[in-house]
Structure prediction request, 358 residues.
Amino acid sequence: MRSLSVDLGDRSYPITIAPELIQSDSWVEHIAGRQVCVVTNVTVGPMYLDAVLPRLEGRQVSVVSLPDGEQHKTLEQLGDVFDRLLGDGHNRTTTLIALGGGVVGDMTGFAAACYQRGVAFIQIPTTLLAMVDSSVGGKTGVNHPLGKNMIGAFYQPRCVVIDTNTLASLPQREFAAGLAEVIKYGLIVDKPFYEWLKLNWQALLERDQDVLAEAILRSCENKARVVAEDEREAGRRALLNFGHTFGHAIETATGYGSWLHGEAVAAGMVIAGRLSVELGWIQTQEVDEFANLLAQAGLPLQPPAEMDCQQFMSLMARDKKVVDGSLRLVLLKAIGEAVVSSEASSGAIERALAGCRG
Prediction:
């Protein structure tokens, strides 16, 4: 078992990483009271509910099974969770358990933040992307047709339970999407991790258990460190959004669920890398190197052909990182050193987009 802590004072919480964690009782101590509501989806529930529910014997348990997919990450769908909580009489000592990928985790966390003005919740992520990114750090929310994750709250879980066995059943496309978030940490804050990833990339692609567990641990360590320094994204935490401003624009333009989040982030990181070259901060071959790793995983390196610079600029103008009308992008000063910058002109962005398309 590997473990670490997200250090937030009296709201600190553990992250544990090991095979067969769902079947253990190690996480049950983090349940607040007698009532529990497990939120999952129609894909994950049939695979893992039978392992979770025996851990909850003796408690009042409700189960909500949501539709699967980013297109269902809406306020309307969130109403199903509130309907079940209210219909089954859950009170302020209830605990919500998010059993699924990033969509389930984000929606469950937001429901926990809102229900009776805040109840406990536990993250049990079942996708690589959720394990290394969305389950850690307390960002919760839903999408809006005009922008991704624009409605939500910062709300931390009681614990994060990462059962690496769940990755065995993860479709290859979703596994690859998670690798985009893994490599992001090396690019923005941890060059030694990036160098380690280059050496172990093939083993990761083959889902070697030891290498995979180490990659998850180091990704979570990086995110936990940044979140502890800047929980509500007043400064340094914005670095975690490398590739995300372009990626969110792609997701919004193409319709949520058409591109997986990690796929959009992969293309977004390449665009941001090319833009960093335009500003004279890194070299073209450095972008080519990490783009090659993404390509080996089967991830897209180009934005959708139908998206031009004007559409990107229009969609990114609604991004949460826009301050007083200024678009701030996360770019690379060097491999392992990201910065938030408003220096990029629309001309430079257009040239970066053109560079991605060859």
Notes: Residues 2-169 form a domain with the Rossmann fold fold (CATH 3.40.50.1970). DSSP finds twelve helices and eleven strands in the chain. The longest strand covers residues 147-154. The CA atoms of residues 15 and 259 lie 28 Å apart.
